[in-house]
Amino acid sequence: MNSQPKLMNFTRMRDIFEPHNELLREHVFMNRELAIVHGDRLQQSLSREQTLFDRFIYLVNRHSDREHQLSYYAERMCLTERYLGTVIRQASGVTAKEWIDRSLITRAKIELRHTQKSVAQIAEELSFPNSSFFSKYFKRLTQMTPLEYRQS
User: Fold this and answer.
1) 120-151 core/surface letters (b: 16 or more CB in 10 A; e: else)
2) Mapped to the 3 state alphabet, what secondary structure does the chain carry?
3) Which of 10, 45, 97, 123 is the most exposed place for a label (fewest CB within 10 A)?
4) Residue 30 binned pLDDT confidence (cut-offs 50, 70, 90)
């Protein structure tokens, strides 16, 4: 009986993440097309950048609820933070930290919109030190408090 609501929540989460995933696929396709147009050397360079970008996004999607720092992802990919940050910015036009923030905020929005969990519970699940820090972080990135977002 308890598995039914979880399945429904998973379906809702998939519906919310799907447009984001489609944008990522489109971005990957566009970068690969650019590489083909500009020759083999650029293609090899962009392929490496794209491979690193794809791996980074995979890791962020899997671990951003627990790991908020670029250093974690750089270590997992055996790269320096500086190099990883440069590659991600070149491949996507967005900083690596912004990708991590987007993932965290998306997860928080899903929890706020589709569950009855308290802000403190969500903050804990997303590995924030406390609900106050989480609320300030959320407001800085969305211009709304978590409760304002839930009520909107």
Assistant:
1) eebbebbebeebeebbebbeeeeeeebeebbe
2) CCHHHHHHHHHHHHHHHHHHHHHHHHHHHHHHHHHHHCCHHHHHHHHHHHHHHHHHHHHHHHHCCCCCCHHHHHHHCCCCHHHHHHHHHHHHCCCHHHHHHHHHHHHHHHHHHHCCCCHHHHHHHCCCCCHHHHHHHHHHHHCCCHHHHHHC
3) 10
4) very low
Confidence at residue 17, expressed as pLDDT on a 0 to 100 scale: 55
Tell me whether residue 125 is in a domain. Answer: no
**pLDDT over threshold 50, residue 34:** no
pLDDT on residue 64: 92
Report the predicted TM-score, pTM, of the whole model to 2 decimal places.
0.69
149 lies in some domain: no
Q: By residue range, what is the domain housing residue 35?
A: 15-96
